[in-house]
Amino acid sequence: MTDSTLPAPALLDWVRKELRTPVSVTAHPSPTREDSRVWALRRPDGVRFCLKVSSRPLSYERETFALRHAVPALGSGHAPQLRASSAEHLALLLTAVPGRPLGRLKLTPAEEVRAHWQGGALLARLHAAGDLSGPRRAEAARSLRAAADEAEEYLQQAAGRLTPAERRLVRELTERLRCLPPLPLAFVHGAARPRNLLWSPASAQACWIGFERARFATVVHDFVPMSCGIWAERPELAAACFRGYGRELVPEEHYALRGLAALDAVRCLVRGPAHHDAATTARGRRTLDQLTAGAFGELHALARSR
Question: Which positions fall inside the Aminoglycoside phosphotransferase domain (predicted)?
């Protein structure tokens, strides 16, 4: 009988060939995306690795590129290192990294602040690592317009989940993304949220994982998930992240953040109900309520000014 929790035999053969030794395999829930599969591997000498099978070719291509060209800038222990990749299997063989996702840990407030500070410092390294020459700069510069284009599609899908006034607000905020002056560009993580930010209490060290959405875009893209998530209730964590990052957002980036948050809200109101995900739905509703009240981002802006 085949154990469906284990990698396919051909994939295991590839792993053994790359590591040149048998390995023990343990399946565990992916801390990145629910539709990618992740296994913990251990060699006989105790050295650990991670096997990740991407959900689709684009995710595999993005993460492979990130791990080869930008992620090494984060430094040893602050991100996985790519040991091998297989386009045939959409598989990545990665070094194991210490820590657990922030959302799965019970930390002291001081530890949480430290984790977000380090997370911001690591994002600064990542943003500085990408080569923005040629078509990559053009790709990054188009990212806000692409977000504006995407908003209308989600507004149609959201249908009765938004009031007419909310739909007008989302359109207004996302259309502004087309009119902003050039903003700082970078190679962004693309999913910089607590489930992808690991923290090791033993070493007091942060680590980013989950680079399947990494791409060239505006810097502000990387601050949307936290702003629409945990920072909405914990502004001191936003302040810590920006201190680690080394700068605050400029006013034009704040305008972009509001537009991208509006897109994130309507996206959550589509995807949450579709996947029976109450937390995602609640996040979208909370962000939209804050935008309607004109208070989005005000709390962590205030915290940074103290």
Answer: 35-252
The DSSP code sequence of 252-293 is HHHHHHHHHHHHHHHHHHHHHHHTT-HHHHHHHHHHHHHHHH
In a domain, 210, yes or no: yes
Q: Does residue 273 fall inside a structural domain?
A: yes
Domain that holds residue 22: 9-95
> Could you read off the pLDDT of 205-231 as tens digits, one per residue?
999 999 999 999 999 999 999 999 999
Domain boundary (29, 64, 95) is at 95
List of the chain residues with pLDDT < 70:
1-4, 28-34, 297-306
CATH number of the domain where residue 29 is located: 3.30.200
pTM for the full predicted model: 0.92
Question: Which contiguous run of DSSP H or E holds residue 225?
Answer: helix 224-228
Buried b (16+ CB within 10 A) or exposed e, 170-191: bbebbebbeebeebebbbbbbb
Position 246, amino acid: G
Q: Which two tokens stand for residue 84?
A: 């091998």
Digit-coded pLDDT (tens) for 52-103: 999 999 999 999 999 999 999 999 999 999 999 999 999 999 999 999 999 8
183 and 66 within one domain: no
Classify burial at 241, counting beta carbons within 10 Å of its beta carbon; exposed 0-12, middle 13-18, buried 19 or more. buried
> Do both 110 and 159 map to the same domain?
yes
The β-bridge relationship of strands 185-188 and 215-218 is antiparallel
Q: Do 80 and 66 touch, CB atoms closer than 8 A?
A: no
